[in-house]
């Protein structure tokens, strides 16, 4: 078989899938590339759905990974509105929802994730919305801009919940947030940074209800009009936005007999338990050489980097996928970038370069560092820019056991780039 006769199938017309297809062509692959996705949109980036696009600051097309014509120009067969119903690794085929079978030489699973839904009485009525697709962002934006503005209830104070809350407030909606934990993002960031996000949202008019969940929704004529919390509080609402996490879309892999454990299990080259099937993005649970552990990352940069790395691995190149985990958020006047990994119990303390307090409703300019034994295992810059290269270098050094002086780390007069000298 010549190179031109090989067929690479990418299941998931996502950001990760589109970046993999792009990388295949960039790396010189001349065979057939099929990019298959369930949505009817061209591949798009998801961060704008809860940020610029939801706010009304960015047009729809800006979220697209490429202009639709690009796929034809690159001889990438983009199949939107199609679902892969089954994967057959031994036969090297996939079956589409209409029964059509396609052969592949190598296949990439970039199926992403789906939202976790509420199992709450009344939770399936009109007015209970989720945010994962562009169409759902359209629905939320239209609701937020109604006249008069609706009373919005956000369930879950994670990244999506807080970004939706910030967008709703920007549109002038009264907002209440219900969160089981004692503070927003506490399990992800710890108490110190959780307090910062709590104070920022409270200063911008968000009403928090911590340590409780929703017991049931009250409905009228098939539409949600209220929520009764576990602590007995009753809240009126016109619209419920649910952000209680996502789960990897692993059904294809499971039914195909591939190893699955909180995602499709892949090695450092993003290869699954089948040598001709790879996985990347939200769906992949990959071995991370720097962290020396298996990790599933649900953020934008992992989709971009993982798609490109998987394409190279599919072409037989040596790949060891170990980028420093990274994500970002924008809420009100706060812009933030986070790099590294500081899981629960994975650090001793958090220190700051700059005051982290929210003052007069304004987000601070500060850098937070998560330390373990004097080593930086994660870092976050808030409204401080052009420092990510230095922070990632500190994190890589920290994970290799290189400690830094906390006094110099927190001193704004000491250049970050000199800390590893």
Question: Can you walk through the features of this model?
Answer:
- This protein has helices at 15-26, 47-50, 52-55, 68-73, 134-144, 159-170, 186-189, 191-203, 251-255, 300-314, 388-399, 406-409, and strands at residues 7-11, 32-36, 76-79, 84-88, 93-96, 101-103, 106-109, 113-115, 128-130, 152-155, 175-179, 207-210, 214-220, 223-229, 234-236, 239-242, 246-248, 264-266, 277-279, 284-288, 293-295, 326-331, 334-340, 349-353, 366-372, 375-382.
- The termini are far apart.
- Helix 1 packs parallel to helix 10.
- Strand 20 (284-288) and strand 21 (293-295) form a beta hairpin.
- The mean pLDDT is 96.
- The protein has a 5-stranded parallel beta sheet with strand order 3-2-1-7-19.
- Helices cover 24% and strands 29% of the residues.
- The protein is α/β, with parallel strands linked by helices and 421 residues long.
- It has 3 domains: 3-114 and 247-314, 3-Layer(bba) Sandwich (FAD/NAD(P)-binding domain), CATH 3.50.50.60; 128-244, 3-Layer(bba) Sandwich (FAD/NAD(P)-binding domain), CATH 3.50.50.60; 333-418, FAD/NAD-linked reductase, C-terminal dimerisation domain (Enolase-like, domain 1, 2-Layer Sandwich), CATH 3.30.390.
């Amino acid at each position: 078989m010549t190179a031109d006769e090989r067929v690479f199938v990418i299941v998931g017309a996502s950001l990760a899938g589109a970046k993999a297809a792009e990388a295949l062509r960039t790396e010189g692959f001349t065979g057939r590339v099929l990019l298959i996705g369930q949505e009817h949109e061209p591949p798009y980036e998801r961060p704008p759905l809860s940020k610029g696009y939801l706010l009304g600051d960015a047009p729809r097309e800006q979220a697209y990974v490429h202009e639709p014509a690009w796929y034809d120009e690159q001889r990438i067969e983009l199949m939107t509105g199609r679902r892969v119903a089954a994967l057959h690794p031994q036969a090297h085929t996939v079956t589409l929802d209409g029964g059509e079978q396609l052969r592949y030489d190598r296949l990439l699973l970039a199926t992403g994730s789906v939202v976790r839904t509420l199992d709450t009485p009344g939770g399936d009525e009109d007015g209970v919305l989720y945010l994962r697709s562009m169409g759902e962002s359209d629905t939320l934006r239209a609701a937020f801009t109604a006249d008069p503005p609706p009373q919005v209830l956000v369930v879950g104070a994670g990244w999506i919940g807080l970004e939706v809350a910030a967008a709703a407030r920007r549109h002038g909606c009264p907002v209440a947030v219900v969160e089981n934990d004692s503070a927003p993002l506490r399990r992800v960031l710890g108490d110190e940074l959780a307090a910062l996000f709590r104070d920022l949202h409270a200063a911008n008019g968000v009403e928090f209800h911590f340590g409780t969940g929703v017991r049931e929704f009250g409905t009228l004529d098939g539409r949600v009009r209220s929520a009764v919390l576990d602590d007995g509080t009753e809240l009126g609402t016109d619209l419920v936005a649910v952000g209680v996490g996502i789960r990897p879309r692993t059904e294809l892999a499971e039914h195909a007999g591939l190893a699955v454990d909180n995602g499709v299990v892949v090695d450092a080259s993003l290869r699954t338990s089948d040598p001709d099937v790879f996985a990347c993005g939200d769906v992949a649970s990959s071995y991370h050489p720097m962290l020396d552990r298996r990790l599933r990352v649900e953020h934008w940069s992992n989709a971009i980097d993982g798609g490109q790395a998987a394409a190279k691995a599919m072409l037989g190149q040596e790949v060891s996928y170990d980028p420093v985990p990274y994500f970002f958020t924008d809420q009100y006047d706060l812009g933030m970038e986070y790099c590294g990994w500081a899981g629960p119990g994975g650090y001793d303390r958090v220190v700051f370069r700059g005051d982290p307090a929210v003052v007069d409703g304004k987000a601070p300019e500060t850098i937070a560092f998560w330390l373990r034994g004097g080593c930086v295992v994660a870092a976050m810059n808030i409204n401080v820019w052009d420092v990510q290269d230095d922070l990632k270098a500190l994190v890589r050094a920290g994970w290799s056991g290189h400690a830094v002086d906390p006094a110099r780390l927190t001193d704004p007069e000491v250049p970050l780039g000199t800390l590893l000298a």
